[in-house]
Design goal:
The chain is an alpha+beta fold. Among the domains are: 406 residues, Kelch-type beta propeller (Neuraminidase), CATH 2.120.10; 169 residues, Nuclear Transport Factor 2, Chain: A. The protein contains twelve helices and 54 strands. α8 packs antiparallel against α9. Keywords: Iron, Membrane, Repeat, Signal, Transmembrane, Transmembrane helix. Pfam families: Kelch_KLHDC2_KLHL20_DRC7, SnoaL_4. This is SnoaL-like domain-containing protein. InterPro entries: Kelch-typ_b-propeller (IPR015915), NTF2-like_dom_sf (IPR032710), SnoaL-like (IPR037401).
């Protein structure tokens, strides 16, 4: 029965539920689960967190542009399964705080604040201009009031904050009816420099380097001169004050001396980038400050070439040289995935995270690697063995080294020592030369409020289990009644206090709007961004890049982890299906070698690009692109099909990436309903695979461009090369796939050409021995056949030519079934250089894991929506069902990482302790739990308690259905809480009855 207070407290949730039921489209707007791409946002780094605010976002359909109303963050102390910092979207931000695009987050690492300045509203009139600050310590927003009248809110300008000085700056940007209330007329770019002093909350409206309006460029801070320098470059000029775009050449750099409030202009040399806007960049420097190196990425173009850029450039100061970066690897292009309106944030001087961005060519509908929330990492010093700039994020990398690209231009070594420290044509101003010889101090500013030693980490809590001292040995199940039984029956008698990781649905999720118009040279675009702007912000500018690097650079916990339920706002894990660095899965140490040598590899926006050399067949070096869901393959890319990959026999998991793999990796992977995509020459085709059980064998000719359905029996499809088979085919003309007119069913390949054919396993009689290949596939052989194979003397890594000579030599002496199996297993060995195993003992398998499919699959979240109390009760049900089904994933969806269990004097703290002491022992039993009399009390929007009665019956494993077996029944009493996905935080049991023999609990 609701009290008025309870009703008031739950009314917003009820209202939200009704709204979601009325408009199901909004129910899809989960910033993690449904993410497609983001752009035009603002970002900043404070205390090992990269904060992301506002901007525009596309969800799964990638067509509706929505305002992003969330304040989220990436945890820079951790790495998710995608090799990037984990993403969370659970920070405070209500509807009274503006959600804008093209603004800036000024970070104050001393007082632990973020300041939101500028930006424009999308498809709505701008709010009155107040300076809002996010208090990191207390997870709340506050207003610092309106600035003086002469300070207006601009969008898509460029700015930085300098925490050591307590100062923030913003130069240029668009003034329009999307950013300034009451604005009339066309957009106009500002020519002013705004300064904000954080400790005194005072503003200054200063002049720029000249009277020209500028926008969509980039600004960084370098600690050169008396107090540091602001460096501005690129973007657009607004020469006529009406939004008409003119490129600002990148060979002209503007510097502002913050200590002396003086502007300088300097010309550059070197490989100057093409004119661009809406790009992003960040600065780092050598340890001895002999060079300051500014990395930029991407950006949009100007007419007539408006496509944009997918490349990296470096501006090194004080020599003021532009250097073309190491991406793309070919030097005569600007990349295949032009991107703009992203943000760049340098982390610990050594890495730069590029977040989001929107594509500006034919890939504009492509999502930006949703599994890692569009986060891409640039290793600025290329500190990895591949010497690659796009790499997986490394939380412990905190030292920058000067890469060879820069050292070649300025001299010195990885620590600095640059020998070229002046521009080729000299400094344009004598004073600038003097300032460049000085290094700004780190400052002596102190906090004006109590901040503690570090920022409190926002929820969700860490996923690192902190084990306690553990339970006493008396807690072993089934030995005695008393504290032991009471503890194990925690799953029955629960006093659970659960906290809810609530989704951010209580906020406005944005209103759908049509896609923005294409970039224009001039004119007014209303509230949909004046003249397609770009964004630059406090060490966070517009630009968007790639993902990660090789498996050797992935976090140690990235592979072979058990799947755990994700937090409401944490990126779900990507499966382990990504191809390893050597393109051959090491199923067991010593049993696999790669057919190819990996020369280099980069992963860019989920696309794996390999440079390979085939060492088995003697093919020349070639390049292959392996891309999820899309196919881009140069003419030299050979033998590649696009399929869903199985690793160690595991089925692909939800959201797992699709990868292109060389044809010789497609063994045992094609399953019913899969779609195979092939690239042949310049033509692409996609054909669903519909296998029948009639063992019908159809055609697949990779080289001619035809690709038809193939069928298989229960044991799979195998790929071999015709040129290795002539003697076997002469002996028994089996049904082989048709290749072309020179090779029909039952005929050998007279030319011996290098073509692929498909064989199908036959229904073989059950022999007592099997031949096991390196993928764990077993082949049945007769006793005589196996002995003949043993005498052949196969050795690990044997040359393929010698191998097939041996096969041909004995095939005519073998039974037909033995010869076919030998052909298949040794083809596998030759194609992947897999060591084969043979044995005169009963069959065995080589470490292949198979997923056991349960009769019932119990999801962690139920479809159709739950009211608050149902959702709370569901946490209790998930917990006991997890025990009944021995389902660890379901258990982890029901209890928190720091679960605190107290039962009859025994305790367990944390998931590891709880599983070892309770779950692993009880879940192996034959058991059933029943809950009744569930009563729930909601104490706050985040906390609740629940009580219920519980009855559980336990039997020894495998004897649960035997009426004569020993049983043990217990009863207990509970408490709990749940919501979107509530979880139990404390679990207290009060045992009320016992019946039967507790020895049943011993298992």
């Amino acid at each position: 029965m609701y009290s008025p207070r309870t009703f008031a407290r739950t009314f917003p949730s009820v209202l939200l539920l009704v709204w979601l039921l009325l408009d199901t489209s909004l129910g899809q707007n989960d910033p993690v689960k449904n993410f497609c791409r983001r752009w035009g946002h603002q970002s900043a780094v404070v205390d090992r967190k990269l904060y992301i605010d506002g901007g525009l976002i596309n969800y799964e359909d990638a067509t509706n542009n929505l305002t992003n109303t969330f304040l989220s963050f990436n945890d820079l102390d951790a790495v998710n399964s995608g090799g990037m910092p984990p993403f969370h979207a659970n920070l405070s931000k209500n509807d009274t705080i503006p959600s804008v695009n093209g603004g800036i987050l000024w970070e104050d690492s001393i007082n632990k604040r973020l300041y939101l300045y500028g930006g424009e509203s999308y498809q709505s009139r701008p709010l009155s201009f107040d300076l809002y600050s996010y208090d990191i310590i207390y997870n709340q927003w506050v207003s610092f009031g309106a600035p003086p009248q002469e300070v207006q809110a601009a969008s898509y300008g460029a700015g930085v904050s300098i925490s050591s000085r307590g100062e923030a700056y913003y130069y240029g940007g668009w003034l329009s009816n999307a950013s300034v209330p009451g604005w009339s007329g066309p957009p106009r770019a500002s020519n002013g420099l705004i300064k904000y002093e954080m400790d005194s909350n005072t503003w200054s409206n200063m002049t720029g380097p000249d009277d020209k309006g500028r926008a969509e460029g980039a600004m960084v801070f370098i600690p050169a001169g008396d107090g540091g320098m602001l460096v501005y470059f690129g973007g657009a000029l607004d020469l006529y004050g009406n939004g008409t775009l003119t490129p600002q050449p990148l060979d002209e750099i503007f510097l502002f001396d913050v200590a002396n409030a003086k502007w300088y202009t300097q010309k550059t040399s070197g490989n100057t980038p093409q004119d661009r806007r809406r790009f992003c960049g960040g600065a780092t420097w050598a340890k001895d400050h002999s060079s300051y190196n500014i990395y930029i990425y991407g950006g949009g173009g100007f007419p007539p070439d408006t496509t944009g850029y997918d490349d990296i450039y470096i501006l090194t100061i004080p020599s003021f040289q532009w250097i073309r970066g190491p991406y793309p690897t070919y030097k005569n292009g600007t990349g295949a995935f032009p991107k703009s309106m992203m943000s760049c944030n340098v982390v610990d001087d050594a890495q730069m995270l590029v977040i989001g961005g929107t594509y500006s060519n034919a890939t504009d509908k492509v999502c930006d690697v949703p599994a890692i929330q569009g986060a891409h990492n640039m290793n600025l010093g290329k500190q990895n063995k591949e010497d690659a700039i796009w790499a997986l994020y490394q939380p412990s990398l905190t030292t920058y080294i000067v890469p060879i690209d820069i050292r070649t231009a300025v001299g010195g070594n990885s620590a600095g020592g640059a020998t070229t420290t002046t521009p080729i044509s000299g400094f344009d101003a004598p004073d600038l030369a003097v300032q460049m010889e000085r290094t700004a101090g780190s400052g002596t500013r102190t906090a004006t409020r109590v901040t503690g030693t570090s920022t409190k980490k926002p929820s969700p809590p860490s996923h690192t289990t902190k084990p306690s001292s553990g339970l006493s040995t008396g807690a072993i199940a089934g030995i005695a009644v008393g504290s032991t039984v009471a503890f194990i029956l925690a799953l029955l008698g629960i006093g659970c206090l659960v906290y809810q990781r609530r989704k951010h649905y209580s906020q406005n999720h944005g209103v759908a709007a049509p896609p923005p118009p294409p970039m224009t040279v001039s004119g007014v675009t209303g509230w949909t961004s004046p003249v397609s702007p770009s964004y630059t912000g406090g060490q966070a500018w517009p630009a968007g890049p790639p993902s990660e690097l090789t498996s050797e650079h992935r976090s140690p916990d990235m592979h072979h982890q058990s799947m755990t339920p994700k937090n409401d706002f944490q990126v779900s894990r990507v499966g382990d299906g990504a191809p390893p660095a050597e393109l051959a899965v090491k199923y067991s140490a010593g049993y696999t070698k790669s057919i190819v040598k990996l020369i280099s590899r980069q992963i860019y926006r989920g696309q794996d690009t390999y440079h390979l050399r085939d060492e088995l067949f003697g093919l020349p070096e070639y390049r292959g692109h392996f891309i999820p869901q899309r196919r881009v393959c140069p003419s030299e890319c050979i033998s590649a099909l696009h399929i869903r990959v199985e690793t160690l026999g595991r089925k692909p998991m939800a959201n797992e990436q699709l990868y292109d793999l060389p044809l010789f990796r497609i063994i045992n992977t094609i399953e019913l309903g899969d779609e195979i995509r092939a690239q042949v020459s310049d033509q692409s085709m996609s054909i669903p695979v519909r296998f029948s059980q009639n063992r019908q064998e159809k055609v697949m000719d990779y080289y001619s461009g035809t690709f038809t359905n193939a069928s298989r029996n229960e044991t799979g499809v195998f790929f071999v090369q015709v040129k290795f088979l002539p003697k076997l085919l002469e002996r028994f003309p089996t049904k082989v796939v048709k290749i072309d007119d020179t090779f029909q069913y039952g005929q050998k390949d007279k030319t011996g050409a290098n073509r692929w054919v498909v064989f199908h396993d036959r229904a073989l009689k059950p022999f007592q021995h099997r031949f096991v290949d390196g993928l764990g596939k077993a082949y049945q052989f007769s006793q005589t056949g196996l002995e003949m194979i043993s005498k052949m003397g196969f050795t690990p890594g044997e040359d393929s030519g010698k191998l097939f000579n041996k096969i041909n030599a004995i095939s005519s002496q073998m039974l037909e079934t033995d010869a076919i199996n030998l052909l298949l297993v040794t083809s596998m060995m030759a194609i992947s250089r897999i060591t084969i195993l043979y044995s005169l003992r009963p069959p065995h398998f080589l470490g292949v894991s198979r997923t056991i499919i349960k009769a019932f699959i119990l999801p962690a979240e139920l479809t159709g929506g739950l009211v608050e109390r149902e959702a709370i009760g569901d946490a209790l049900y998930r917990a006991v069902l997890a025990f009944d089904h021995a389902d660890r994933a379901l258990l982890l969806s029901a209890i928190t990482e720091d679960i605190d269990a107290k039962m009859s004097g025994s305790t367990a703290h944390g998931i590891a302790d709880f599983r070892a002491a309770v779950f692993d022992r009880v879940s192996k039993l034959d058991k059933t739990h029943f809950l009744s009399n569930v009563r729930i009390s909601i104490t706050s929007s985040r906390m609740a308690t629940a009580t219920c009665s519980a009855l559980a019956q336990h039997g020894r494993p495998g004897h649960g259905v035997d009426p004569r077996s020993i049983k043990f029944t217990s009863g207990a009493f509970y408490d709990c809480k749940v919501g979107d996905l509530w979880k139990m935080k404390t679990w207290k049991a009060s045992i009320t009855r016992l019946d039967g023999d507790p020895i049943a609990l011993a298992g």
